[in-house]
Design goal:
Layout (H helix, E strand, L loop, with lengths): L10 H5 L15 E16 L11 E13 L5 E9 L19 E11 L2 E10 L29 E10 L4 E9 L16 E10 L3 E10 L12 E10 L6 E12 L5 E12 L2 E12 L11 E11 L4 E12 L5 E11 L1
Antiparallel strand pairs: 1-2, 1-16, 2-3, 3-4, 4-5, 5-6, 6-7, 7-8, 8-9, 9-10, 10-11, 11-12, 12-13, 13-14, 14-15, 15-16
Length: 343
């Protein structure tokens, strides 16, 4: 998950952006909407960081703007602008953004319908910007989330995507992102740049659904450690029983990275409405075949619990706790409070 969610471009969703008539002839007048968030994160992580010495109480922030423009009522020009000062163990929070105060255009793309399809293209497309299938309905706004490899979202560049949805709940999407496509010395689809292809297929029903994600990073760059090249597959289901105000999500992810051992990830997440807010809990388990001497992949068990409640329509406070146990260093256990201002 990202701090600033991207609008998945289905024609029906695009039509909701601005159904404004300029006159009685229903001529559409182009319109722009601006929304954003500011997140204050304060916390401490016991035995934090690789050296287990980053455990002081500290505070970081994230700030972002989403600017959406529709020219016809069915299309969408989307721009995301973010900054932040994330560092230390809390840089892995879902809300975290880096930038040291410098505003950065993080995404920029245009979407438009073609028959029953929605087409997205632009110079800044994230790998997970256009994902039709839903593998998890977990809120994923604290520390842990599902499908860390098939939906990593760390690859960004010029891209194109197509998504489809029908009235029966069947959805599908395909996308191509060229990480080196903004460089004249690398180019789109080059032999020395990473190109990422993602396919999804799923079913979004009333109270339940699921999907499958296939992703491939060709690894031509050879220097991508954050998101290693190779094949990844992710699957997941979610269920919201009518008798209980909760949503249960179960997901599985597997990656076969070039130059590293295979790894798999199991995830279970529950969101439960309690009082004025939502109680969330998640468990994740990473299993790596063999031993990775670089520490890029390591066996890991993680758990989190948080409670989000709104002070008003624009301010949400989320206290929570997480613990990360791996076979590289001491366990990291964090107590964090986040305040989100939405506008």
């Amino acid at each position: 998950m990202k701090l600033f969610s991207r609008l998945l471009v289905a024609p029906a969703a695009l039509g909701l952006m601005a159904p404004v008539a300029a006159n009685a002839d229903t001529a559409f007048s182009s319109t722009t909407t601006l929304s954003g968030s500011a997140v204050f994160t304060v916390g401490s992580v016991a035995d934090g960081g690789p050296a287990d010495n980053e455990e002081e109480l500290y505070m970081q922030y994230a700030y972002g703007l989403d600017i959406n423009t529709s020219f016809s009522g069915e299309d969408l020009l989307s721009a995301g602008i973010v900054t932040g000062n994330a560092s230390g163990p809390l840089r892995f929070m879902d809300s975290a953004e880096e930038g040291n105060g410098a505003l950065t255009v993080s995404s920029l793309f245009y979407s438009f319908p073609v028959g029953d399809l929605s087409v997205t293209a632009g110079p800044l497309v994230d790998q997970d910007d256009v994902i039709a299938a839903t593998t998890s309905a977990y809120s994923g706004t604290f520390r842990i989330d599902s499908n860390p490899w098939s939906l990593a979202g760390n690859e960004t560049g010029p891209g194109i995507a197509v998504s489809y949805a029908n009235d029966n709940g069947v959805v599908a999407s395909a996308s191509f992102v060229s990480v080196g496509g903004a460089s004249s010395t690398v180019g789109i689809g080059a032999d020395n740049g990473d190109d990422v292809t993602t396919f999804t297929l799923g079913y979004n029903g009333d109270g339940f659904g699921g999907g499958i994600v296939l992703a491939n990073n060709d690894g031509d760059d050879g220097n991508n450690i954050t998101t290693p090249s190779g094949d990844a597959i992710g699957v997941g289901i979610y269920y919201s029983p009518e008798s209980v105000p909760a949503t249960i999500s179960v997901a599985y992810d597997k990656v076969d990275p070039d130059g590293f051992n295979e790894a798999s990830d199991w995830f279970v997440g529950v969101d439960y409405e309690v009082g004025p807010g939502t109680l969330s809990a998640a468990y994740g388990s990473v299993d790596v075949d063999g031993t990775d001497p670089t520490g890029t992949f390591a066996d890991e068990t993680s758990f989190e619990v948080s409670y989000s409640y709104k002070l008003n329509d624009g301010v949400t406070i989320t206290p929570g706790f997480f613990t990360i146990e791996d076979n590289v260093g001491d366990d990291d256990s964090g107590v964090v409070v986040e305040t989100t201002f939405s506008f």
